[in-house]
Amino acid sequence: GAVVSQHPSRVICKSGTSVKIECRSLDFQATTMFWYRQFPKQSLMLMATSNEGSKATYEQGVEKDKFLINHASLTLSTLTVTSAHPEDSSFYICSAIRRGSEAFFGQGTRLTVV
Amino acid sequence: AQKITQTQPGMFVQEKEAVTLDCTYDTSDQSYGLFWYKQPSSGEMIFLIYQGSYDEQNATEGRYSLNFQKARKSANLVISASQLGDSAMYFCAVEETSGSRLTFGEGTQLTVNP
Hints:
The structure holds two protein chains of two kinds. Chain A is mostly beta strands. Chain A contains no helices and eleven strands. By secondary structure, chain B is mostly beta strands. In chain B, a hairpin with a 4-residue loop joins strand 8 (64-69) and strand 9 (74-79). The interface between A and B is medium-sized, with 22 and 19 residues.
C-alpha cells in the first residue's frame, strides 16, 4: 500500500485563490520531504526541499512567496499555491525518503486554475 | 550538479519482447544512487529498481534489470518479456547522497504493442 499520501488528487480553483496540497508519510517519520512540479510530457522538476521544523529550501527560480511550504510535523508537509494563476496549472508531486529505503512518492495533485 | 540524459523520447516494443531504455548521467560525486521510476498515465511514480555506485553487480528486480556501466556513466534499464501494462513513461534519476533529492531525466515514453 501507499506509504506517502497526497491530497487532493485533483483540484480546480479560480484565478486569484489559494490552494493547499498535503503530503503525509503514513508509516514512517520524514524529516525531509520534496516537492516537484511536472508539466505535461516533461520531467519532474524539484521546487523545494521541505525540512521539518525549519524553513524550506527553494530551488533557483521558484518564488518562495507564491509556493509556501510548511513542514510542521514529522509526517506532514503542505504546499500552498497562493494567488494562483492559470500558468500555475500543473501536476505537483511530493516525495519522502524512509531511512534506508528509496524515495516514496505521493499520488500527485493535478491543479487547474481557471 | 547532476545531469541525466535519456535520449529516447519514445520507444515501441512488441509484447513479450525485451526492451532497453537508455540513461546516461554526469556527476562529480563518488558515491551516488541510480533509480528508475515508472509513471503511468495516472501520474503516480512507481519505484522499479535501484543501483548504488559502489555495487559491483547489476541490480535486478523481477523483469527489470539495470545495465550499469560505471566508466561510461550509463545505467540502462532492461525490461524483459514486455507486457501491455508496461506502457508508461519511464524516468531515470540520480541521488547525489543518500537521503537527498533526486534529479530526473527527461523520460522515455514506452509503448508495448500487442
